[in-house]
Amino acid sequence: MTPFDYARPIDAADALRRGAIAGTAYLGGGTNLVDLMRETVARPERLVDVSGLPAAIEETEDGGLLIAAAVRNTALAEHRIVRARYPLLSRAILAGASAQIRNMATVGGNLLQRTRCTYFYDTEGSRCNKRQPGSGCDAREGFNRIHAVLGGSDACVATHPSDMCVALAALDATVHVDGPAGPRTIPFADFHRLPGDRPDRDTNLELGDLVTAVALPPLPAGTRSTYRKVRDRASYAFALVSVATTLELEGDRIKQVRIAFGGVAHKPWRAMRAEAALLDRPATHQAFLDAAAAEFVDARPLRDNAFKPALASRTLAAVLEELAMGDAA
Amino acid sequence: MSIIDSAKQAAQGLVQGAMTKLVPLAPDSWIPGGVPDPLIARKHGLIGKPVSRLDGALKVRGDAAFAAEHRFADMTYAALAYATIARGRIAAIDTAAAEAAPGVVLVMTHLNAPRMATPPVFGSSPSAVGPADLSILQDDRIHWNGQPIACVLAETQEQADHAASLLRITYGAEPSTTTLAGAKANGIEPGLFMGQPLLNEIGDAEAAFAAAPHKVDRTYRTPRHNHNPIEPHAATLAWVGDELTIHDASQMVTQQAQTMADTFGLATDKVRLTSPYVGGGFGSKGLWDHQVIGAAAAKLARRPVRIALSREGVYRVVGGRTLTEQRVAIGADADGRFQALIHTGLSVMTPQNSMPEPFILGTQAAYAAPNILLKVEVARMNMLANTFMRAPGEAVGTFALESAIDELAVELGIDPVELRLRNEPDKDPTNGLPFSSRHIAQAWRDGAERFGWHARPPRSTRREGEWLVGVGCATGTYPYYRMPGAEARITLTRDGDGVKALVEVAAAEMGMGTSTTTAIVAAERLGLPLDRVEVGYGDSAIPGAIMAGGSQQTAAIGAAVIAAQTALVGDLIKLAGNDSPLAGLSPDEVGCDDGGLGSLADPTRRESYASILGRSQRDSVSATKAGSLPLETMHWSMHSHSALFCEVRVNTVTGETRVSRFLGSFDCGRILNLKTARSQFRGGIIMGLGMALMEETQFDERNGRIMNPSLAEYHIPVHLDVPEIDVIWTDIPDPHAPMGAHGIGEIGITGVAAAVANAIYDATGTRVRDLPITLDKVI
């Protein structure tokens, strides 16, 4: 770990003032950033600990929810309204990490998790464009079982590791940000980036920007939702693929459906093609598989992850079938 | 080697050769264990009862000081830098920034490290436990990707870690072999294990296989595995003059001390190594580069050093299990009787070590067949020296063998349990020795009944929602070993009205319960309550040498304690003299019971230890004795066995496998401590589940670098992966082993991967022959 300064701001304004200086990182629960610092992947000169800022979960006028960035993952997953109205979010959070880590991790920090690509972590022995732009990518021809099949670039095939963010993508959440340019909101789909030729940038945040809250719009009455994660062991493993979906039926036809995949791309992957293919169609198993096929038609599997498109497609079909049958909330 | 050494070795070879021929023919009574240990007949007392670890409370409270928790005054902290190429040389190390960093005491590289001998490589002498035939920090050569090439000492661990990250190292890379294909192309050699060729040929196996009416012929693959004990490797070291004290985490205490003495050119008694508490070993807690580097740095800095490897450091410095490619071919007649059993294949090691994964060991005594061919060959690769990992050989060998037997059972339409029983040998099929104790058939019967094996539905017919349910079985096996060199010292001391006993053995306790079991056995043997017995262990100052390896420590300790007890009884009878009720009795006629000695023939003739010591005006009496030569393993074929049953659920959507039930039915002689034995069996089975489903070192063949050196990315089972594990045992003593007991540290993992693979086949009809069985191979 590289030596650094540490400060606890008295309020958000203080945090923003301190965070505007280059070389500063905001610290939430530290469950990812501290690991990255120990491995010298991240070498911030200053940490501004925002975990003590207000951590409220409030209902909004439109019937949605406003979740402050400092809310702990456990608190969000266990929140009464989240469990009742957004069960996919609860399930996604509880599918991640361990109870101890969820007790520490914050909502804001979860959005800023960095990839688990092992070449990204290997500061001494491997090339990584995300860690060191322009150095090359050792994952593309190396171990890439956990890597992207959609939206990758020559520079980077990493995946975003969060479970929670996959649910937020399916929920059309909005990220509230404050920074040197003043407060603004970013639609969740635009928050994380595809790698392109700048894989070092995971998000569209600018220097000094602080995530202050995440807003959830209400889900229409009668919408069912769930989250399913597929992994190499029963717990404490990152997703090979995961699916977050919401489904609203009218009779046996699909009135509205939202689908997001985890484990397949550099960002939580909102499956717009699959959604379009399903809208106003009968909710049949074949329709679900066809929709998944449409989503993965451009998939570019690598040496170790060729199983992902089929696995994700089957998982999506199973999840939608479960929702259509009304087995899940 | 000098002429004298050569002559000595030749003479030893002659003696060994003669022993190999004569010991099997000798009368049983000449052989250790020929007369059963009297403790076998003893049915009361603590043996076999559930006794909690005597050091358990200490550990739970955090009061047991592990290797990295010792503290010396003025101690420094070490951090290592590791090479990033597989082979070549260090062109330059820029140490300026590291040396200028806060708190740095010293940066040590090959340029300024003290001159040291190459640690004698494991097996080159009875006390040699060096990791590879390589010097440490003595030159600019790089031999593997991850080799420690510099050490920083600083006032705090954080300062050392930071400074190590500032080292700038440039390399001159040289051609290396880091692919399996390349290693094979370089040439394949016969495998040698502990000096013995890994080759057994009985009859003409290939011809008999070709002629057999029913057969399977398959290739199975197992990947590299890294060691992941909960306690990363560490040592705290200090020099006082030319005396070196090491608080280490060790399963070979005396040998490590001697190898360190050899490396630093010291007399044996100048190195004191203690290791009372070890957070898991599994074969990995031996001598690696870090202890040598720590001692060298302490010498150079003239300050004590704590060197604690990070988890990544364990992956870079401490070898694991190497990969294997195994062929199993079985030819059988229509009744399923084996006509030919072939188990051959390849393992990979380094140019500088001598540890092929001996995957045929478990096959040697497993099944009767008139024609047998067992062979391990090796290819060499530039990588970290591979080493022992729980049941080296058997753990991966049983995966191949027991999968193939399941495949043959399917081919023949015979129940796989029945197929195994039909091929039970009546003597050791490869060396012809009689079995000392073999009750595998009973283990199968007991296990099958308890698991409900015979009530199972037909293959691939059980489905619960998305989940296909299947069951599988496999045999596990591990030999009884006993290495020479063990000694015990028993000291009886007057204590109030009675006595207390100190039993000292140079044994290692890695957390499995050795110290507790030794206390139980010694208490029984001496006829004392458990709380009157203290066990001294984990200290190189104790005489003798005992390794916690090969599951042989229990037997080695047992035989040494028998020898010391016999000597002690002789001394006590002499002390008792003519005024004692024992007068005139020889040691053979006397037993230890109820706090004293008594005539075996006439229980009324007895005298307490306290009385004997009191009358002879002694405070204490002590006897030290070496255990008998382990000739029993040359006279009988001695093995432990298990019958394993597994139920899995395989998801039809995702291919995920979840093990839902597991039963291990063991035949391991007499069980000494029910509680720690269960824990050993279950721990081994859990490790086997990991091997079956998830464990795999990601060794990047482009540069020989291990890419998942972390418990986040190298998967071992978490709680949710582990079902209720039922364990039962025959508890039939081996009449020829001390206490009737076999060591049980390794048997647990053997056979497990095959039981899981066979269950997955039963559930899905998919046969996976390539570990680990991840979902993409099943789907």
UniProtKB/TrEMBL annotation, chain A:
Entry annotated with the keyword Chloroplast: no
Alphabetized PANTHER family for the sequence: OXIDOREDUCTASE (PTHR42659:SF1), XANTHINE DEHYDROGENASE SUBUNIT C-RELATED (PTHR42659)
Species: Sphingomonas rubra
Annotated GO MF terms: FAD binding; oxidoreductase activity
Coiled coil: none
InterPro entries noted in UniProt: CO_DH_flav_C (IPR005107), CO_DH_flav_C_dom_sf (IPR036683), Diverse_Substr_Oxidored (IPR051312), FAD-bd_PCMH (IPR016166), FAD-bd_PCMH-like_sf (IPR036318), FAD-bd_PCMH_sub1 (IPR016167), FAD-bd_PCMH_sub2 (IPR016169), Mopterin_DH_FAD-bd (IPR002346)
Xref: Pfam families: CO_deh_flav_C (PF03450), FAD_binding_5 (PF00941)
Alphabetized UniProt keyword annotations: FAD, Flavoprotein
Domain FAD-binding PCMH-type: from-to ranges: 1-221
Name the UniProt record assigns to this protein: Xanthine dehydrogenase YagS FAD-binding subunit
Keyword Iron annotated: no
UniProtKB/TrEMBL annotation, chain B:
Superkingdom in the source lineage: Bacteria
UniProt xrefs under SUPFAM superfamilies: CO dehydrogenase molybdoprotein N-domain-like, Molybdenum cofactor-binding domain
Record keywords, A-Z: Molybdenum, Oxidoreductase
Domain Aldehyde oxidase/xanthine dehydrogenase a/b hammerhead residues, every copy: 61-175
GO MF entry, a single one: oxidoreductase activity
Pfam family, one: MoCoBD_1
SMART domains, per the entry: Ald_Xan_dh_C
PANTHER family: ALDEHYDE OXIDASE 1-RELATED (PTHR11908:SF132), XANTHINE DEHYDROGENASE (PTHR11908)
Name this polypeptide is given: Xanthine dehydrogenase YagR molybdenum-binding subunit
Organism, as annotated: Sphingomonas rubra
